[in-house]
Amino acid sequence: MSSLLTNTSAMTALASLTQTQNNLSKTESQISTGLRISSASDNPAYWSIATKMSSNVGALGAVNDALSESSALVSTMSSALNSTISVVTAIKNDLTTASNAGADLSKIQTDIAAQQASLLSIGSSANFNGLNFLETTGGTVNLVASYDSTNGVSFLSVDTSQTALFNATTGATTGILGASGANYTTASILSLNITTATAGDLSNMLKDVEKAISSITTAASTLGATTTNLSTQQTYISNLSDSLTTGVGSLVDANMNEAATKLAALQVQQQLGIQALSISNSNSQLILKLFQ
């Protein structure tokens, strides 16, 4: 039935055009943002899951940065310990030479003194971001190791009392090289002097040096294991972060090929809808012509 007051066909055409324009707006938004779900209103469940996963990805990124810093720290200390082993081995060789009959102890002591200065330099300069495992009073240093949303951040502990070579603090417990006191006054590898040493003295010194080399090697091995652990964690965290990122993408990313095809179809629908609405609105004019 034709009516001047109620144009049913126009109302239907308008409703269809409005729906088409809404769909067109959503599709254009997907293409511009690359996201199928960009807000909670698009899909509350998926948006909530993706938001939590994205938050975890951010936390894992921070943990990975901390792991990189920890790896650099431990690598610095390991390198210093390896250099220390070489220097202490040189002192061992000097002591062995000094044990030979007729050896010039004074000249050999000059070389030993140079090696002792090198040990102090190596230990004191092994500083990374304010931390030094070699010149220290000891204690535990916690390095960030991992993260999960349930338990939070976990740590890897390093006992620096096992890596300390010496300690400049007065009255402090001696380190691997047996040095303590403000001026390293306690008898130690850093203060040994063979100028007037007897054969017995040299024998005891060699034993102390052998013990020091063994302790330093153990400390270096411990840090090596720590480096391996940190590297393993870095790989795991990176892989986990990639997996979560992929998961987030599968939930919220738009299929750009599909969106582009849909956009073209909706643009055609919009044009047809406008034409349909125009035709429906013209029906009222046709009815009026019947009375002219």
UniProtKB/TrEMBL annotation:
Pfam family of the protein (one): Flagellin_N
InterPro entries membership: Flagellin, Flagellin_C, Flagellin_N
What keywords are assigned to this protein? Bacterial flagellum, Cell projection, Cilium, Flagellum, Secreted
Give the CC-aspect GO terms. bacterial-type flagellum; extracellular region
SUPFAM superfamilies per record: Phase 1 flagellin
Instruction: Tell me which residues make up the Flagellin C-terminal domain.
Output: 207-291
User: What top-level branch of life does the organism fall under?
Assistant: Bacteria
Give one GO molecular function term. structural molecule activity
Q: Per the database record, which ranges form the Flagellin N-terminal domain?
A: 6-135
Protein location: Secreted; Bacterial flagellum
Describe its function.
Answer: Flagellin is the subunit protein which polymerizes to form the filaments of bacterial flagella.
Q: Which family does it belong to?
A: Belongs to the bacterial flagellin family.
Q: What is this protein called?
A: Flagellin
Q: Which organism is it from?
A: Methylocella tundrae
